[in-house]
Please model this.
Amino acid sequence: MTTTPTDDPAGASPTPPAGSPDTAAELADTMTRAIKRIRRRTSERLEPYGITPGQGRALRALAHAPGCELPDRAMRLSDLADRLHIAPRSATTVVDALEEAGLVERSPDPADRRAVRILLTEAGQAAVERIGQVRHEVAQEYFGRVSPADQEVLLRVLRSAEADYAAAMPPRRPASPGAAR
Model:
């Protein structure tokens, strides 16, 4: 019988021999399981704050935008969608929820009245700090027993793979004119 990831109750599948054609597929499966576990735990830890992981990503993207606290330099909705690799409509839904929670404010773009800029509120800044703490705690729970040297190797390899993959992919199409900004 061949064991697949869904056959094994522990979620692990047999380790292929090093360098076999299935090594990359096994790596992808293992990363997927890790990401799901980390995301699920992060979601559980953010739930008391009323923040989803997707909203947390949006808040972090806004907080790391240069000049995010200044209305004339705040990020456009369309730029947020691009940074999150989501459709502008999905970004609108995320921002709607964040605005309702008092974590962001919309402001008209002085250079383009069709565009909307998103500003973090004080409550949004505080939420970004909580999210950072939760991310740190969950990462420590998951990777804490992995040696710092192995963590560095894993990080270096994943950054290299991501850079190579991104360089080989065709550029993303820009959003259509008039899309949510």
